[in-house]
Write a structure and sequence with these properties.
Elements lengths: L1 H17 L1 E19 L4 E18 L4 E8 L8 E2 L26 E10 L3 E9 L7 H6 L8 H5 L3 E11 L2 E9 L16 E11 L2 E11 L8 E8 L7 E11 L7 E14 L2 E14 L6 E17 L2 E15 L3 E16 L1
Antiparallel strand pairs: 1-2, 1-17, 2-3, 2-4, 3-5, 5-6, 6-7, 7-8, 8-9, 9-10, 10-11, 11-12, 12-13, 13-14, 14-15, 15-16, 16-17
Length: 352
């Protein structure tokens, strides 16, 4: 038995010795003025400081095999919490079970953990996968069609999901497929134990003339009384105009399970990026309208995001930048019922 253990340890040591292991990370503090205006005329305003710290560890083995993990808080959007708050409890609230508010700290867990193989032609990975929801608002439309949050998938799901992913160079483009387990609801022995819901993400990246076009599809399958939406659309990278890198997207979603509440809707996305002075200007506008069975009027939601990213310091081993940002979200069902402003300054350091 001891010999077997020694052989296994020897193999692991040899693998680690020939693997290229890198460690990198980032830290962020974000002062924010949060203003909300509700339908009943009530207003709310708060000034607080959010923070996070994240560590990536990547191991590159030979012939494209790799392992990657991100250690971070499992709070909303990977934020540990706010200055003056106790740690996030993982269930939508804050707990003061470990320390006073001024001393409370969040726990660090595997925010991502995936391994697989990548070559120029194809690749696959499995585990807790990063999901680029911030660059694809279709995720928000599919999973949170009537949410009053600006980027709900990134915040609630921390831009990650458990599942399997693969890509393959097909023709002149690239086919991407991801299968995620949305909820482990238990076994299927009787009607009291619904089957697990899964979602399939499919896209094909291709270039048509001067356009970068990516048709997309998200389809969820779930138990008979659970929501099973289908969302389809396309993201288009447009030619530069007046120095701006432009992109746009259009998406359609539909959910036909009556017990879960039927709905259908549309969403448009327009984004502009341009270097201005010593920094980069980034802005986008999302607009969606959802026709639901449970409301007389459509749920109309608009998000405006305006940010200027200024790099204060940059070297081979890290950088520090400031990013003043204005975010406004509005939602109405015939008249304005909800509005929220987030006026914030992101102070962000990366290191490796």
């Amino acid at each position: 038995m001891k010999k077997i253990i020694l052989v296994i340890l020897s193999i692991l040591i040899v693998q680690i010795a020939f693997a290229e292991v890198t460690i990198k990370g980032d830290a962020r503090v974000r002062p924010r003025l949060d203003q909300r205006y509700d339908a009943d005329g009530k207003t709310f305003q708060d000034f607080y400081y959010m923070y996070w710290a994240r560590i990536w560890l990547d191991a590159q083995l030979t012939e494209g095999w790799y392992f990657s993990t991100k250690l971070a808080s499992d709070g909303p959007g990977n934020f540990i919490g706010r200055f003056g708050d106790s740690p996030y409890d993982g269930n939508g609230g804050w707990t003061d079970g470990r320390a006073a508010h001024s001393g409370g700290r969040g726990a660090v867990r595997f925010a991502e953990m995936h391994f697989g193989r990548k070559t120029e032609r194809m690749g696959f990975s499995m585990g807790i996968l990063p999901m680029s929801a911030l660059g694809n608002p279709e995720y928000d439309l599919h999973f949170y069609p009537t949410s009053t949050s600006d980027i709900p998938y990134t915040i609630v799901n921390a831009a990650s999901a458990a599942g399997f992913r693969g890509f393959y160079k097909l023709g002149s483009g690239q086919l991407n497929l991801t299968l995620t387990l949305d909820d482990n609801t238990g076994n299927r022995e009787d009607d009291a134990n619904p089957r697990d819901p899964y979602s399939l993400f499919a896209s094909y990246e291709m270039k048509v003339g001067d356009l970068d076009i990516t048709p997309t599809l998200i389809a969820t399958t779930a138990d008979k009384d659970m929501a099973s939406p289908i969302t389809a659309g396309a993201n288009v990278g447009l030619p530069k105009f007046a120095g701006f890198a432009l992109s746009a997207g259009g998406y359609f979603t539909s959910q036909g399970v009556e017990a879960a509440g039927k709905y259908s809707g549309l969403m448009t996305h327009i984004k502009a990026v341009r270097p201005i002075g010593p920094g980069t200007f980034v802005s986008w506008l999302d607009y969606k309208t959802i026709d639901t069975d449970w409301q007389d009027d459509n749920v109309n939601t608009a998000l405006l995001w305006v940010m200027y990213k200024y790099v204060v310091y940059k070297s081979e081993i890290g950088s520090f930048y400031l990013a003043p940002t204005f975010r406004r979200i509005m939602q109405n069902t015939g008249n304005v019922e909800y509005a929220r402003n987030k006026i914030e300054l992101t102070m962000h350091m990366t290191f490796k």
